[in-house]
């Protein structure tokens, strides 16, 4: 089939936003409210929001940062094999993982969405917050040695020390991949987010062309803005506008480019990764 002969107006393409959890020890996904909102407002059967957990708080074997990268890469491969246009959404520390995986699959990942990205441990209050969680865990174990397991589970700090260690390593090791990103990027943060500072935004976007980056700053909500409908609704709308709706001629051109991409995917990359 000649691509030039195809009427792109009649091409129906499947798209997915793969949403990665942040550093959270709850069973409920950090983006669960966002997906619920999408399910209410989304009416196109070709559009999908997929929630994935890069680690399981109850399984120590999943904490390793390299294994977390592999979890996301595997999910991308599954959707790429079905000719989906893929957008990755990272929250907090998983923004770096999304940037890294985007460099692994540049032909398949068309947009990146970074919500409250964390790049710095010392320049923000991030490292201190991890140390406080670790101290809380140690205090509980010392104060209630016989029933510490139940107490720890109630406090949602099970496995907190090894998880925090791998999250911290992930932040440091993956931030170099932001400068390698070449697709369109949306960055959203709350003005009162103590973990995502101005330098973070510059680090992520300074190597990208101006028309490749959309940055939105929201009035309030802190680092967990995206987890709540009342605080995150404006951000939800901006994400869905960025991912799924045509808002100007430049995006219309990009829409056609994405449709063409689904008709001419090269399989060499996927075959290489499937050998691993």
Q: Would you kindly provide a written description of the structure presented here, covering whatever features stand out?
A:
The chain has a six-stranded parallel beta sheet, sandwiched between helices. It is globular. With 276 residues, it is α/β, with parallel strands linked by helices. It is built from ten helices and six strands. About 3% of the residues have low confidence.
Which labels suit this protein?
alpha/beta; about 280 residues
Layout: helices, strands, pairs:
Elements: E1 15-20, H1 32-41, E2 47-52, H2 65-80, E3 85-91, H3 94-104, E4 109-115, H4 126-143, H5 148-154, H6 160-174, E5 184-190, H7 198-205, E6 213-218, H8 229-244, H9 249-263, H10 268-275
Parallel strand pairs: 1-2, 1-3, 3-4, 4-5, 5-6
Helix pairs in contact: 1-8, 2-3, 3-6, 4-5, 4-6
Instruction: List the helices and strands in order.
Output: EHEHEHEHHHEHEHHH
Please estimate the helix content: 40-55%
Given helix and strand content, the structural type is alpha/beta
Largest sheet: 6 strands, parallel
Rounded to an integer in angstroms, the radius of gyration calculated over CA atoms is 20 Å
Shape: globular
Poorly predicted ranges: 264-270
Number of strands: 6
- Distance from N terminus to C terminus (CA atoms, Å) equals 32 Å
> Which strand order does the major sheet show?
2-1-3-4-5-6
Mean pLDDT: 81
Strand content: 5-15%
Number of helices in the DSSP assignment? 10
């Amino acid at each position: 089939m000649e691509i030039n002969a195809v009427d792109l107006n009649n091409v129906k393409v499947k798209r997915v936003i793969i949403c990665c959890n942040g550093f959270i020890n709850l069973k409920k996904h950090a983006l669960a409210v966002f997906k619920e909102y999408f399910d209410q407002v989304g009416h196109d059967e070709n559009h999908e929001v997929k929630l994935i957990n890069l680690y399981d708080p109850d399984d120590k074997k999943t904490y390793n940062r390299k294994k977390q990268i592999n979890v996301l890469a595997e999910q991308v491969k599954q959707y790429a094999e079905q000719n989906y246009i893929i957008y990755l959404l990272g929250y907090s520390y998983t923004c770096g993982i999304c940037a890294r995986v985007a460099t692994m699959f540049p032909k398949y990942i068309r947009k990146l969405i970074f919500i409250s990205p964390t790049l710095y441990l010392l320049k923000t209050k991030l490292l201190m917050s991890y140390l406080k969680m670790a101290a809380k865990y140690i205090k509980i174990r010392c104060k209630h040695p016989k029933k510490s397991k139940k107490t720890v589970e109630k406090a949602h700090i099970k496995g907190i020390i090894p998880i925090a260690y791998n999250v911290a390593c992930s932040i440091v090791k993956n931030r170099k991949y932001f400068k390698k990103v070449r697709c369109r990027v949306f960055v959203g943060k709350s003005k009162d987010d103590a973990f995502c500072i101005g330098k973070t935004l510059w680090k992520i976007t300074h190597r990208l062309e101006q028309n490749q980056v959309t940055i939105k700053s929201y009035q309030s909500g802190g680092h967990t803005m995206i987890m709540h409908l009342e605080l995150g609704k404006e951000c939800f709308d901006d994400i869905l506008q960025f991912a799924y709706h045509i808002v100007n001629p430049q995006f219309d051109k990009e829409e056609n480019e994405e449709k063409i991409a689904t008709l001419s995917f090269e399989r060499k990359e996927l075959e290489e990764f499937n050998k691993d």
